[in-house]
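Collaborator request, handled under Task 6.
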Amino acid sequence: MTDADDLTGRTALVTGASRGIGRAIAVRLAAKGAAVLVHFGADGDGAAATADEIERAGGTAITVRAELGVEDDIDTLFAGVEAALAGRPLDVLVNNAAAAPAGPIGATTREEFDHLFAVNVRAPYFIVQRALDLLPDGGRIITISSVATRMANPSQTSFAMTKGAVETMSLTLANELGARGITVNAVAPGATRTATNGTSFEAPGLAELIAGTTALDRLGRPEDVADVVAFLASDAARWITGQVIDASGGLFLGPRV
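Structure tokens returned to the collaborator:
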């Protein structure tokens, strides 16, 4: 670990860190030395498992509960965050929590649409708003987007719209906060197999089909995304801001012939 990679003495909040990519991000930031606030909405056991994994490896983790997308969600979240910080700054904010795609336009209900935007757009926006007073100069804001913003998938129209919104948010905030040395970036994973979604890739031939459209010829792993986030959180990425980093292994770059 180089000095530029070291996050010792810093504190990070990772939303949706009870499983999957969020857990991998929390574990990776802790491995680099950060004290991690492990946010969860409903999966308390999963958050505890994330914190336990971090602590067994010698790191520091505190779980924070708040359901996102509901009334007073940000107040609830930051009551827990500020109690856990106990006066320390919040150096790294990772907006990872998100609601899953609701389906094609013909099937999406108004309630599903509103829920998607409440969790995937409204919550990250106001989390950043509240975090600005806690972030020191030189802080990091990283939001998880998706390759759904650059490819047409009829089953993910509303989901892709939410991710396009947070990419625009990241771009504009990078310009606004740059004078404070705060970098703001988004990371866009592709098809990533996790312990939670693994069964969705078990349809005959599906995993092979997706791998065949990926330049690196495999499905993603949570650690693939976590390493990119950890880089952006470090001083090594101090000159990168306002960017969307594709972490998909080169999904749908073009024909492979």
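The cover message to the collaborator said: "The mean pLDDT is 95. DSSP finds seven helices and seven strands in the chain. Please let us know whether this matches your experimental observations."
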